[in-house]
Amino acid sequence: MSDVADGPEMKVTGRRMRRMLGTDGDHDHARRFCQSGINLALVSTSSGDLEHLGDQGIDVEVFVADLDELKIETPSWGYGNSGTRFGVFPWPGAARTVHERIADAALVHRLTGACPTVAIHVTWDWVGNWNELAAFAESEGVRLGAINGNVFQGDDYRLGSFCHPDARVRRMAIDHCLECIDIAEQVNSDVFTVWLADGTNYPGQDDMRERYRRLLEGFRELYAALPPGMRFLVEYKFFEPAFYSTDLPDWGTAVLVCRALGTQAQVLVDTGHHPLGTNVEQIVALLLEEGLLGGFHFNNRKYADDDLIVGSIDPFELFRIMSEIVSARRDPATATNADAIAYMIDQSHNIEGKIEAMIQSVINIQTAYAKALLVDRATLRETQIAGDVLGAHRVLTDAYETDVRPLLVAAREANGLPLDPVEAFREGGHADRLARERA
After folding, report:
1. Would the pTM count as exceeding 0.85?
2. Average pLDDT for residues 274-301, to the nearest whole number?
3. Which contacts of 153-161 are long-range, i.e. CB under 8 A and separated by 24 or more positions?
4. Is the C-alpha dihedral spanning 203, 207, 212, 215 positive or negative?
5. Which helix (H) or strand (E) holds 315?
6. Cβ-proximal residues to 209 (8 Å cutoff; 6+ apart), any chain
């Protein structure tokens, strides 16, 4: 992605901004904005903010191009019915098969222009011919993305998978993941991920050092099977379903595992997999510094691994994470890692519509990223060196409090996309159509 320059490059005139937003009396633009479902009065009010950015010397064209290059992968499992241990509430028209899930992901991409790939969970999305599934995805306008293994369901995994005391179960988990790597190679995916539910519930249940050795032994076999260019993303979670010890509990353990494996292994950060109060953006910064940040599973939470809509509870945290990424992309020492991050969503829509919730997550990620691009890095650095604590903090909050909706609207307008993708989904009658077709 290209970055917005630290200094002025090209001022965008108020007339040009009004033209982009359709608020200069251009009735054709205004008509298209209304047809897209956007609130024209809101855009008219917000257009002054976009003009102000241009007056500050922000190159809006570069800014829009940078937003356009932000690609976000949606998960197949996010489009089907889901729930908790208390129950599942079916949603009319929710996807029932992998083909329907891919079709829904393709619809999200058509409405947002930002989601060209869909992550696959091999066990949940199993098909007999993966090449045919890849071809179907391409016919829908998307591609298969990260291939996810499943070593946490089934009675055999009661005491774990890679860390299980029984070598037979460990072999089963290894063979499943080897198959996932083979599938990834078949469909031209360059990302394989696995999350372990392995752990113990009681002190003395198993030897924790021995479990770590088993984990490394199995992961080394997987790593040896990786083709060149494929990354093995190691995900961690501090508890659940295990309640006493978890075998991959935190980013530090994941780093140890990745370093034991090699350069094709990197850490996957799920934003909901941390204890309350964890400084996730500091973890992101350190992983970037070490060249070990492989990707994200974005979601949001209030208490534990709630898998809520991205940015719905703590949008400021999402902004702080994005700010560290933008900063790293401007640093030659970390730019290579920052430019290769896999941005993926991993959430569960239990009581809301699946597709529009996914669209809202995409919008929230774009919004946080856009605000992070607005941080005045030169002034931030000056205030940091000067020891101006409040001044530095205000540089960040000034960017966070900026209304970037006009920028997002301009980016969508430039690409012929609906200006409000959620409203476009609702006004387009997609929910009713899918409910009828999948009744």
Report:
1. yes
2. 98
3. 153/123, 157/197, 159/206, 160/196, 160/197, 160/198, 160/199, 160/211, 160/247, 161/196, 161/197, 161/198
4. negative
5. helix 315-329
6. none
